[in-house]
Amino acid sequence: MVIVPATTGQMGVLPGHVATIAELKPGVLSVHEGNETTKYFVSSGFVFIHANSFADIIAVEAVPLDQIDANLVQKGLVEFTQKLSSATTDLEKAEAQIGIDVHSALNSALTG
Amino acid sequence: MAMAALRREGRRFAPLISPRPITAVRSSPIAPSHEDECPIGVRYISTQVVRNRMKSVKNIQKITKAMKMVAASKLRAVQTKAENSRGLWQPFTALLGDLPSVDVKKSVVVTISSDKGLCGGINSTSVKISKGIHKLNSGPEKETQYVILGEKAKAQLIRDSKKDIELIITELQKNPLNYTQVSVLADEILKNVEFDALRIVFNKFHSVVSFVPTVSTVLSPEIVEREAESGGKLGDLDNYEVEGGETKGEILQNLAEFQFSCVMFNAVLENACSEQGARMSAMDSSSRNAGDMLDRLTLTYNRTRQASITTELIEIISGASALEG
């Protein structure tokens, strides 16, 4: 079973799932194989669930959770919050918001 | 006869010389020359020209051998990346299929080529295929535009298709290729070019000696919808529930853009691999040719040397016998 962080929330995928195309938001992807779980942080991407119980997960970046540095996450979060408050154009605001989303997701991935 | 052979070789030799101009080579006939090293009164045939030729051929052999090894090491580095990137576009093809035969009004051909030369014929084949696609897609209401990556394709396409070129991007390989760079590139293309179908032309790397020119087709979301409704290969797309987003169209838009950047990433890496592989084999055959040429020149050199010694001996001996008798 796989739990993917779709834009509509965490989605669990088991064999026999209805065929779906879902967009992913930054979050934790956990792969449960038997009793083992491997967790990755996914920055964004897509998941295709085919009708023959095959799922393809395509991510822009995927990192195993133990390779993430908590200090850098905090620093990034602070940096992007600053950028958001000092942003003038819509584009800058959007970019800063994206940075905040990713970093807070990273934060909750590390703690949660 | 030796001179004629050398002059023939000289002409064949010229294209190899061009990257590194070696001006010492002149195919002047080896006649008794007064140029060098002869004390006055002694005539002998000069081996200087052949010697110069041999030196430059030997240099070329060393240079091309070194280039081959450099290309081999670069190939090793890019090859793992390229093979890993193949998994990136396969899910898209599993979902959306690859329909080169789709009928669209506006298609854009993205030609990927190298910046540097001396890599065999891969750039010419890519350009040939791009022109072929252009021809296939021309007709009433249909038009094709080019987006060019790389200097070599730019040089070839700018000559006859200047008005059809939308965007030219060069110096891609200055920094090692990574996804971020390619996604910025894909972004640029998507922003500036409107298209119904994107056809990416590149050389797929099968092995060190085989590179196959390939075309990958990425459709715009509207065409995907149209094809899905009309059935056929994309007909199953409607069976998929689309989660999230306000409309299916929005998701498909993101999907198409993501697909384009993934396919581009793979295409650029594969083309880089093919370029290094082609350069390896081109440099290998060039150093082998240089070796052959060196053998032939050595024979000529020895013949000339022996002929000059014989001439000198004859002159001395006939001079001595003239004095006696």
From TrEMBL, chain A:
Family under the similarity heading: Belongs to the ATPase epsilon chain family.
Any matching Pfam family: ATP-synt_DE_N
Protein name (database record): ATP synthase F1 complex delta/epsilon subunit N-terminal domain-containing protein
Alphabetic keyword roster: Ion transport, Membrane, Transport
Primary localization class, coarse: membrane
Localization, UniProt: Membrane
Entry-linked CDD domains: F1-ATPase_delta
Keyword Cytoplasm among record annotations: no
Keyword Transport in record: yes
Residue ranges annotated for the ATP synthase F1 complex delta/epsilon subunit N-terminal domain, each copy included: 1-53
Highest rank taxon of the organism: Eukaryota
TrEMBL record, chain B:
Any Pfam family the entry gives: ATP-synt
Annotated CDD domains: F1-ATPase_gamma (cd12151)
Membrane topology designation: Peripheral membrane protein
InterPro entries from the UniProt entry: ATP_synth_F1_ATPase_gsu (IPR035968), ATP_synth_F1_gsu (IPR000131), ATP_synth_F1_gsu_CS (IPR023632)
Keywords: ATP synthesis, CF(1), Hydrogen ion transport, Ion transport, Membrane, Transport
UniProt key word Plastid: no
Localization per record: Membrane
Xref: HAMAP family: ATP_synth_gamma_bact
PANTHER family linked to this entry: ATP SYNTHASE GAMMA CHAIN, ATP SYNTHASE SUBUNIT GAMMA, MITOCHONDRIAL
Family note: Belongs to the ATPase gamma chain family.
Protein name in UniProt: F-ATPase gamma subunit
Species of the source: Hibiscus sabdariffa (roselle)
Lineage: Eukaryota, Viridiplantae, Streptophyta, Embryophyta, Tracheophyta
